[in-house]
Amino acid sequence: MSDTVERHEFGAEVGRLLDLVVHALYSDREIFLRELVANAADAMDRRRFEALTDAASALPPDAKVRIVPDKAARTLTISDAGIGMSKEDLAQNLGTIARSGTRAFSQSLSESGAGQAKTGENGQDPRPSLIGQFGVGFYSAFMVADRVSVTSRRAEAEAAWTWTSDGQGSYTLERADRAEPGTDIVLHLKEDADEYLEPHRLDHVVRKWADFITVPIAVVQEGREEAANQGTALWRKPKSEITPELYEGFYRQVGMNFDKPWATLHWRAEGQLEFTALLFVPGMKPFQAFEAERESKVRLHVRRMFITDTANLLPSWLRFVQGVVDTEDLPLNVSREMLQATPVLARIRRAVTGRVLSELTNRAKDSADYATFWENFGPVLKEGIYEDHERRGEIAPLLRFRSSAVEGWTSLPDYVARMKDGQEAIYYLVADDAEALARSPQLEGFRARGVEVLLLSDHVDAFWPDSLDRFAEKPLRSVTQGGLDLSKFAREGDPGDVPAGIDALVAGLKAALSADVSDVRATDRLVDSAVVLSASGSGPDLQMQRLLRRAGRGGGSLPVLEINPHHALIRALAEGPESDVPAAAGTLLDLARIQDGDTPRDPVAFARTIAAALAGAGRSEPAGRPPDA
Fold this sequence. Notes:
Shape: elongated
Radius of gyration: 36 Å
Family: Belongs to the heat shock protein 90 family.
Distance between the termini: 108 Å
Structural class: alpha+beta
CATH topology of the largest domain: Heat Shock Protein 90
Oligomer: single chain
Strand order of the largest sheet: 1-6-5-4-7-3-2-8-9
Keywords: ATP-binding, Chaperone, Cytoplasm, Nucleotide-binding, Stress response
Subcellular location: Cytoplasm
Pfam family, one: HSP90
GO cellular component, one term: cytoplasm
């Protein structure tokens, strides 16, 4: 072999792919450190395996991956005591893209059957878990470095060699000195990569991306080595070996939480699809709003190596779940775009989602315990009804509601079990204010007949009932939608006869309010209130119409004004002069709007009308006697 520097051109495909690797394959620049650390750990795994048949290849007892920043030289060095590379290995693995020492080693292992008859002390196959490709992943170094040098000595070889390149189309090879087998990768950092000279930044990156690689990783600072990874993948351990304290510690670390998890799910899927999952349902709401970030942040690992927390392993309506999914069935150097397209990940998503729903179903059997979960994350789970057509049948029994008939939370199955004979629909009422719901005039007729109504006040409640449409073959109906007939149910108390003049009053109100309502009609679903609004036809209910107006998307069709013919105010108008009707019509409509949590059409005019009415009532009282309230 020549002692002179040898210059070589990259393989034809390298130049085209380098730009892709640096600018497109990886969305996060700091991933370069994950790739290089993974390669170093892989090389040490391979050397450990070779030591099973060749004691001379044994790893030193203190072997680890060392990360050494040098601010003065502006270099970052990643060193390992792994299997190392010969001159030919350097040319093949680093000079030709998509060449892989890992892949070649795995293939030769399979072809030779090496190691198949050997077992470790615990009875398991001692062959290493091979990660990554020493090819594409290596080139991520050029995201932060304008020149990279790799000095390596193959185990059992005498000579070491240095590979050097600026990533512009060629590389050099020359003899080097290295006392022990292994590899040193030296990155000459770009001007905008100073952060990777800071030990605390390097420590953070390693803990984020490679915390559970079993090979020890250390960041060297002023001659001191600081451990940067745990070295143990908790989720890979048998459940019998993990204490509640270990679970809680990992939960706090992975989700930056301070509470205890409400539920812990730890299982291994085997068969055509293999993965391990350790997931947590938090015991309290997070500090940040769920609306700001609607994507799942469950971490995807491949063979213990963190890949991303944006793989959307769970749907957005389960985004409160935290934890890790670790699979053997994906390559390490996979981009986000590839993740979204791979069928393997789609199968993992389905399996993980099904497992979480199964856990929630089991925990829902304890109503008091489940109430804790529901009060924290119920509104998020409801989103699944209108977002996930496939799963809404599984989600619906998990929903919980306040009710006009029972204390605490109730479910759709419990509601159906309590339905009155002849009741054909599940009734609900939606409003912004939970306190006001229970006092709404919309409930008066239902209460008088003993018909239960579900009370919905979450921000998503205006959307999901139409998506679910029915439960247990019973349609869901908003009590504000027109056309509800309660006459089949006996009413508590006799309201008396309908006074004369109601038909004329209805006609007069309809004429006065023709621009504001689609219809005016007498109703038997009011008890104490004079008026109420309902939606016309089968369109959106009143709450949805209000949301549409706020969003500037129109408010649907005009509402219907329903009047209570037995109320004293309505009786007085029906029996009084017709000339009073036009002036009273607008006030009645505004009263109905206020009762439903809306505003008067003209708040100033409404205030003046009420003030004038109060002043008139005061003048009509005898002197010295205050008017009745």
